[in-house]
Specification:
With 459 residues, the chain is an alpha/beta fold. It has three domains: 65 residues; 261 residues, 3-Layer(aba) Sandwich (Aspartate Aminotransferase, domain 2), CATH 3.40.640; 114 residues, Aspartate Aminotransferase, domain 1 (Alpha-Beta Complex), CATH 3.90.1150. The chain has 15 helices and eleven strands. The strands form two sheets. It has a seven-stranded mixed β-sheet with strand order 1-7-6-5-4-2-3, with helices on both faces. The protein has a four-stranded antiparallel β-sheet with strand order 8-9-11-10. Helix 7 links the parallel strand 2 and strand 3. The chain is globular and about 70 Å long. The structure holds pyridoxal-5'-phosphate. Pyridoxal-5'-phosphate binds next to helix 6.
Length: 459
């Protein structure tokens, strides 16, 4: 069975580039087939895998395709698939340390590598989450527990208008209601306006509320902006607020020593969200949270029960004491095995290469008639739009949407856009380990051709 599955998977991966980067996503013709009743008896494995690999999986955004420059890519390293296979086949329990101490130690080791790459101190602790959303949630809970205690209703948190929507959703889940979440404006590069942040904190303090948390972004999803982390950190320390950095998109750039200045201030934050399923190229399902003072995370999540062995002390890493889960997948093995198989230097080189490729695309797009780069890439993501003399902002939006559709219809790369502050921007994010110079050249050619056609239509 395993050999049959591996053969299918290997064929699938080898053929990724032969499929369009944006697959057909209509399933109207196969909905009935997909909604079939549960079979009364066992089916042949090959029989059920055939439609999965031949048809269903291709009806999707090509998130593993080398030309996937949409949303935030990652690619999905095969090493993690091997790790998942081993974890599921051995099925050991990594919720509590005592149930599989050697395996939990591997997870602690992988977290410690992340800690070191982020420049966090030895007392930092964290946990491997399902993704960035839960890491941000857990950070908000830890900050709330430390700084608000029972004064929940008075607590106010701050984030820019560009923060990922999971932060406001997490605030709500954590009991911070929408009227206590302040949206701070951004500058022309879409980064948080620190002066406006300071004014908002002062106004809330004067009104008798309790400012407790600033969430800044180390790479926003819309345009890739990095908030001024040094200044925000200094303000938080001065006013005794918790500074959480959502680095779901960008934190892994800190792993590369020569790129660290782009994320200056990240190492001084109280907590940071990372998403190995983005910047470390893993498949979906692995995020991470690191909290500077591990005790702050532990005291917000620690719990036990009479039927369980007593939790380990602060020196012994016990996953269930640092996050909301008890039974959980052994996510750390994906990170641990990947780093073992590739080594730190190769991963660093791949991350650095994504930035170099992005700078190359941005420089070449800038030369194309009608294309406007709206913000230079802070890391490996930037927004742009199409404009011709005499066009209104609505004309720009319509033409930019048409450009994205034309590029995607060509099938060699997939890009997406975003609407923010009433404008539509196309965006490119290079972060899949499979994206190389060839795909960058395709992107530039396809965007140039689409821009030319759209401009010719109005001239
Ligand atoms: C900056 C940022 N924060 C948070 C998230 C949410 O992460 P996840 O989808 O892993 O839950 C994303 C997802 O793209 C993101 O880009």
């Amino acid at each position: 069975m395993a050999a049959g599955v591996v053969e299918r998977v290997v064929q699938h991966i080898a053929s990724l580039g032969h499929h369009p980067a944006l697959g057909e996503t209509s399933i109207d013709d196969i909905r009935a087939e997909l909604r079939a009743a549960a079979p009364r008896s066992a089916q042949s494995l090959e029989g059920v895998l055939a439609p999965f690999f031949d048809d269903w999986v291709h009806r999707s955004f090509g998130t593993a395709h080398p030309g996937y420059l949409a949303f935030i890519p990652g690619g999905g390293l095969f090493s993690a698939a091997l790790a998942d296979f081993i974890s599921a086949a051995t099925n050991r329990y990594t919720g509590v340390q005592v149930a599989a101490p050697a395996l939990v130690e591997l997870e602690a080791t992988a977290l410690d590598w992340l800690r070191e790459w982020m420049g966090f101190p030895a007392e930092a602790r964290g946990w491997f989450t399902t993704g960035g959303s839960l890491a941000n949630f857990s950070a908000i809970v830890a900050a709330r527990e430390k700084l608000l205690g029972e004064h929940l209703r008075d607590g106010v948190m701050y984030a820019s208008s560009q923060v990922h929507h999971c932060v406001t959703k997490s605030a709500q889940l954590a009991g911070i209601l929408p009227d206590r979440v302040r949206t701070i404006g951004v500058d022309e590069s879409f980064a948080m306006d620190v002066e406006a942040l300071s004014v908002a904190i002062d106004a809330d303090t004067a009104a008798g509320l309790r400012p407790f948390l600033v969430v800044s972004s180390a790479g926003t999803t819309n345009t890739g902006a990095v908030d001024p982390l040094v200044e925000i950190g200094a303000l938080c320390r001065q006013r005794s607020l918790w500074h959480h950095v959502d680095g779901a998109y960008g934190a892994f750039f800190h792993m590369v020593p020569e790129l660290r200045p782009l994320l200056a201030g990240l190492s001084d934050a109280d907590s940071v969200t990372l998403d190995p399923h983005k910047g470390l190229f893993l498949p979906y399902g692995t995020g991470a949270l690191l909290v500077r003072d591990g005790e702050d995370l532990r005291s917000a999540h620690a719990a036990t029960a009479g039927y369980l062995p007593p939790p380990g002390d602060a020196e012994t890493y016990d996953p269930s004491q640092y996050g909301p889960e008890l039974s959980r997948p052994f996510r750390g093995l994906r990170v641990w095995l990947t780093v073992q198989m590739y080594g730190v230097e190769r991963l660093r080189a791949a991350i650095a290469e994504k930035r170099t490729l992005t700078l190359d695309i941005a420089a070449r797009l800038e030369q194309i008639d009608g294309l406007v780069i709206d913000a230079a890439p802070a890391l490996s993501l930037f927004p742009f739009h199409l404009h011709a003399p005499g066009w209104t902002p609505d004309d720009d939006d319509g033409a930019t949407r048409a450009l994205v559709d034309r590029v995607n219809a060509r099938g060699r790369v997939m890009i997406t856009g975003c609407t923010t502050a009433g404008c539509y921007y196309a965006r490119i994010c290079v972060l899949s380990f499979r994206t190389r110079q060839e795909q960058v050249d395709h992107a530039v050619d396809d965007i140039r051709n689409a821009a030319r056609e759209l401009l010719a239509a109005v001239r």
